[in-house]
Amino acid sequence: MKWKAVYMVNPHRGDIMEKIKADFLLLNAGQLVTVAGNSDHPKRGKELNEIGVIADGAVAARDGVIVAVGTTDELQKRVELTNGTVCVDACGKVVLPGLVDPHTHVVFAGSREHELEMKIKGVPYLDILAAGGGILDTVRSTRAASREQLVQVARKYLDQMLAQGTTTAEAKSGYGLTVEDEVKTLEAIRELNNSHPVDLVPTFLGAHAIPEEYKENPDGFVDLVIEEMLPAVKEKGLAEFCDIFCEQGVFSVEQSRRILLKAKEMGFKLKIHADEMVPLGGAELAAELGATSADHLMVVSERGIEMLAASSTVAVLLPATTFCVMGERYAPARKMIEKGVAVALSTDFNPGSSPVNSLQIVMGIACRQLKMTPAEVISAVTINAAHAIGRADSVGSIEVGKKADLVIFDARDYRYLMYRFGTNLVERVVKSGRLVIGG
Ligand code: IZC
Ligand code: ZN
After folding, report:
1. Which residues sit with their C-beta closer than 6 Å to ligand 1?
2. Between 99 and 12, the higher pLDDT residue
3. Binning pLDDT at 50, 70 and 90, where does residue 4 land?
4. Hey, which of 175, 208, 295, 326 would you mutate to test ligand 1's pocket, going by the most ligand atoms within 8 Å of its Cβ?
5. What is the pTM of this model?
6. Ligand 1: which atom is nearest the Cα of residue 129?
7. Strand, coil or helix: 349
8. Where are the alpha helices (DSSP H) in 89-165?
9. Which residues contact 114 (CB under 8 A, 6 or more apart)?
10. CA distances for 61 relative to 51, 75, 85, 437, angstroms
11. I need a labelling partner for 42 at 20 to 30 A (CA). Which of 13, 52, 65, 390 fits?
12. What mean pLDDT is reported for the chain?
């Protein structure tokens, strides 16, 4: 719909100002953290600290899209309210763009609390997997669940995420590992995307583990992914990205390259679970193939860091995973930022290595363990996270033309969000110009 412009004379300057019609207006944000200015490329180095705070800020939207951003004073003059305009008073609190979670395995059945005691005793994640547990445990429950059951379980997790400020998330398959069960999972993701306020970006992760029936023939499973799963997912238009768990004892760099090259040829964008436990060279592979993101990177090599810095690939760091698996080494975030790698943060929400779906918890860990500053952390869960899933044109910052996805936190200073730890500070969430959490 075209704007109907209303003109008025500015009494101070005598010139003509165009009034903007809005059906949503947020006023009195003590700090409106816009994170503006990086929709065409992810933030690197010092840019990560530039988060565009407007004191006493305001945002106007129409039909779910931002039409004006400025101070409360400015917008009160510039915006024309219509009958049904929803006005939200942020009462001097901190407002951020809706948070973006660029790496989740949110659709699965069952849970794995029995692994906690094994982890406490020091049993490594990869040993649990090799013994038929871990991912394969979740594969058994996910195969046994119907698509409707998967939707029902994941909806609850998405409700929790929205209530904690996440308005866009990536969602991977990967607990089906047959053509039928991978398609079932991706269909569940599509159904959730059509019926839940959180926007989902679907990723096919058929190469998440070698299923038990292919234990003696892992290359046969790689063939199945290439020859049957990828074409089925493509034909049904069920995924935008293809991902792989490139890890010792799971998929080698060579197997990963085979799958990802085929996926790229078919038009999928790429992601890689890279250098999480053993430095196999996943980061190098991601840069070589022009992947949109390389994720984890706890044990990334020097060369991997240099190649990522010189590429457009976003490094998605998952410190809640290191925390939950009780790992000793967190990703070398400071070194990556200093070398110019574009860094984002994510929960990695999954039933095994990170049963954490709160980005606020990840933000607190990122400051304390990755030594990222609060401003860097905010860039990493907004605009850079949006770049990591190919959505920086529509979300990740508070700018005209983007979705009106906003979060009001019970805080007066953005640093308070990371300083407090473990409490949900979200007061209200606005998705596409509609209040979806908080009255
Ligand atoms: O279920 O353990 N790392 N995939 C790769 C996972 C963790 C998910 C899981
Ligand atoms: Zn993952």
Report:
1. 105, 134-135, 138, 245, 273, 350-353
2. 99
3. very low
4. 208
5. 0.96
6. 2
7. coil
8. 115-120, 125-130, 135-144, 147-163
9. none
10. 21, 11, 10, 17
11. 65
12. 95
